[in-house]
């Protein structure tokens, strides 16, 4: 079963995303910031897709993406930024760091699952 890594400092958002993804048949790993995400990747978790918020304490989404791209097992893992930010500058910054895509919060469950399924179909 494919695993999705969800990083967000909002416990409510993590619970909501986890519920949607688990309901669609995905395993879900979570973290409250980019530092926790890097720790999980360094410890050997190999998610099929990563969903990350931009604005988080300790290590924000852009910093997480830059660090994740340095880890061999995550170098080509799709990373989707899920944020309330809608500005083009932040989007360009995320893409330059290595983000694969961008969804604006709150993402509709069908929209979220459509994007995730394109990157990682459930078997």
From TrEMBL:
<keyword id="KW-0597">Phosphoprotein</keyword>
<dbReference type="InterPro" id="IPR050595">
    <property type="entry name" value="Bact_response_regulator"/>
</dbReference>
<dbReference type="GO" id="GO:0000160">
    <property type="term" value="P:phosphorelay signal transduction system"/>
</dbReference>
<feature type="domain" description="Response regulatory">
    <location>
        <begin position="3"/>
        <end position="120"/>
    </location>
</feature>
<feature type="modified residue" description="4-aspartylphosphate">
    <location>
        <position position="53"/>
    </location>
</feature>
<dbReference type="InterPro" id="IPR011006">
    <property type="entry name" value="CheY-like_superfamily"/>
</dbReference>
<dbReference type="InterPro" id="IPR001789">
    <property type="entry name" value="Sig_transdc_resp-reg_receiver"/>
</dbReference>
<protein>
    <submittedName>
        <fullName>Response regulator receiver chemotaxis protein cheY</fullName>
    </submittedName>
</protein>
<dbReference type="Pfam" id="PF00072">
    <property type="entry name" value="Response_reg"/>
</dbReference>
